[in-house]
Structure formats: C-alpha cells, structure tokens
Amino acid sequence: MDLNGLLFKRLCGYPGIKESLAEYAGNPAVFPLEVPPDQQQGWGGRTQYPRICYRFDMQVNQERSSAGVLRAAIYTAKDLHMMNKIEDLVRRCLKDVLMKPSGQAPFCVAWAASQDYQMGEAGVMCREAAFDVLEYPDQTTTDPDPVMAVSTFIKEMYPDSIVLGIDRTGDYVDSSDKPVFFCRLKDINSTTGHCMHSIAWFDCKVAVHLLYPDASKRLKMIAAINQRMAVEREVIMLDQSPMRLNELQVNNTADYLREGQLMVTGKYGCLRGGEKKHYLTGIGMGFTD
C-alpha cells in the first residue's frame, strides 16, 4: 500500500472521524488531492461537509529534519466546534504511529502548525493542519555493522519492544502500544590504534531513538540502556568482535522523533586482508649458442 492508501485507511478507520464526516459513496468524506464535484452521484444529494482533503509534499527539509510535509485540510459548514473536534481527532489518529508503505521506509508524522483560511463559498470554513513527515530508513552499513550491534543489544535487553531493522512491521505500528527503537548512524571515522598493520580501526556514533508517548517511561528505558552499556563497556558485533564503548550521552530533552535520546560512541576494528604476495614480473628467457 502506498502513502495515500495508508493515510486514507488510517483516517477512515479511526473512531470518531468516520462519524464526524459527510459520506461519499459509502465511505467517509476523506480525499487525496482533489474533492469530487458536488454533481457526482457519490454524494447522493447530501451535504458535502465536514470533509478532509490531504496531500503529501515529499521535499526534504534539512532545517526541520523532515522528508516532506503532509497537509490535511478540514472543511466544515461554518461550525467552529466541529472544526476543532475533527482537527483533534486527526492529530490523535496520527500521533506516534509508524506507517510502512510497500517498498519504502517506515515513516511517521509530527504536527507542525495549523492555519485557518477564508473560503469563497459562503458559510464554509477551512483549517489546514501541516505535519512533518519523518522517515526511518534502513541503517545497515556493512559487516561488522555498529548500528546492527547496538540494535541487537537493545533487542536482547527489551525483547518485547520493536527494533527497526530487526523486527518486521506491518502497515501500522502504534508506539503507544509497544515501544519502538530506531538506531541511526551519525558518522564513522577511520582512526589509529594498536596493530595497525593487521587491524583497521574506526570510531563511530550511533543515535538511539525511543518512540513512545509516555515521557517518564522513555526516560527510564533509555537510562537503563545507558547504565547497562556503561557497565558492560562493549557491545558484541555480528562477527563476534567487540565494539568498545568510549562515551555514552543521554539527552532527555531531545526530540525523540528527530534527534534520539542516547548517543553511543564506540571503537571497533576490522582485520586487514592476508599477506599480499609479491610476484616477479618482467622475467624472460634467453638462449646463446
């Protein structure tokens, strides 16, 4: 299912939204991009309001750390109370929910702003709610992989949670039901260390996001991970080599959707290839009488 299909299904199935909207062809009046003309038979001669029309603008915004913007326009027939009610339902419907389009990375949306517009049609009100679209793409690098090492450590510590990159997800994941972890690679730098002739060394930083609406539980879980990592001082990578943990930093005020609350700084090594053989070249044979 694509982005539009996931959002349509989510909005139409959320308790309260269906009952609050007009009906078109047996479904709640929720439309991507364009609204059918009032002459269409789907309206059945009934009112066209309230209704929701939405669109995605998938243009990366580095300043807001977003992959795009979702704009949901809510139309009502001059009923401010109903307008406020529907906006609140839409925001609750989309809050802390991961959606997974086919062949794409999971994403969620975070409310950014709402603005009222004056409509040309008499008695019609419009409010557009803008949401930042935040993607959580696959962070797999290579073997050994520091991101997968941190993800596996967290999954072993919290087996009932969902760790993106390890657990499979369906169309929707509501993080209010089950905590969701996302480990994001910040950077990898080659560095110096012992046995440089046989080992290539790397410093890396991995940001850990915990998506969960309960702030107190987020803090407890992140603090517990930080403490256990500090005690063990290493995480084991998939090739069974250790990644030494040099620094752990918890930032409880960070935006858990965009920045992550725990920064893990580690050092790991990769064995260099076997001994390189040197071959003689330019050898020829000559014969004399």
What does this structure look like?
- This protein has about 290 residues and is of the alpha+beta class.
- Helices cover about 20% and strands about 35% of the residues.
- The chain has five helices and 15 strands.
- The protein has helices spanning about 5-15, 15-20, 80-95, 145-155, 215-230; strands at about 25, 25-30, 30, 50-55, 70-75, 95-100, 105-120, 125-135, 160-165, 170-175, 180-190, 200-210, 235, 240-250, 260-270.
- The strands form four sheets. It has a six-stranded mixed β-sheet with strand order 9-11-12-15-14-13.
- Strand 11 (about 180-190) and strand 12 (about 200-210) form a beta hairpin.
- The longest helix has 18 residues, at about 215-230.
- The radius of gyration is 27 Å and the shape is elongated.
- The termini are far apart.
- The mean pLDDT is about 85.
What are the defining features of this structure?
289 residues, alpha+beta, 5-stranded mixed sheet, 5 helices
